[in-house]
Please model this.
Amino acid sequence: MSQEESVSQIERPARFGASAPAPDPAVARWIRGTLARVPPRAPSLIVTVWGDALAPHGGSIWLRDLIDLLGPFGVSERLTRTSVFRLTRDGWLRRESHGRQSRYRLTMEGERRFAAAYRKIYAASTRDWNARWELLLVRANGLGAPMRHALRDELHWAGFALYAPGAYARPARGGDELASLVERLGVTQAVTIVDGGEASSLAPLAARIGDGWDLSAVERDYRRFLARFGGVIDRFRMRGADASDPEQCFVVRTLLIHAYRRVLLRDPQLPGSLLPLDWPGAAAHALTRDFYQLTLRRAESHLAQTLALRGERWPTADDAFYARFGGLDR
Model:
């Protein structure tokens, strides 16, 4: 037995029993190398784990169980406790005391933030566009500097570009997302929302895509994402889902979603007709979707067995979970 195999057997979680597939040494090396080269910040990793894995199962967890869940990522107990404290202080989480034990769940504001972010991650990769634009005009001297900056950040996150001082634009998406954003920020009286009309009447906007959005940086990040995860995911495909170790499925899935989230939330998600022909966003979405489906049962098994050690029943995932990426097999 090689040293690599020996280490894998020693590190194998006893809770999965002898019948579970053995960890793949090649995947174990990839995980160690990835965590060493691109170590995720603990608070950000917790946000990923919460949104991807915990929210569909009720969204609450004992602190002790969260510590166990983050162990394979090299996050220490002390760092987990510190990060949870900061997320609670920043309004993401709230604490429930049960004797000497603590249980954490999302606040209402945390739920709102998760819902907005994760709709982007798990949505279909294509969006119909009616060839119209949305414009938002900010009245001169209508807002103080702090609110202008807050509005700018929210609009940037929502896919708007600043085309002129106080003038933001994006390809229309429909719905009441923009009106809700403006109302939530309390800036209704200082802005004007305009249906900008057909793309043909606003040709200069489409011609100046590069001025409004830095697509080259997003494209570069997508290609790095594909290069980083393509090989390890091919390894899982070669072995097959039933031969994959549950913990490795969960760890790689989490690192995949963590990296995809960081790229995607900087992507304005423009309609395909406004993007380069070789735009890598669709390939990144397909890779993420396919791996999620491939490892679904094993990754969920790891969650259930890690988080049910106290004798509690781990809640089944909600319907929204199985609607991810256009529909997952139950």
In short: Residues 1-18 have pLDDT under 50 and may be disordered. The chain has 15 helices and seven strands. Strands lie at 60-62, 93-98, 101-106, 132-138, 161-164, 167-171, 191-198.
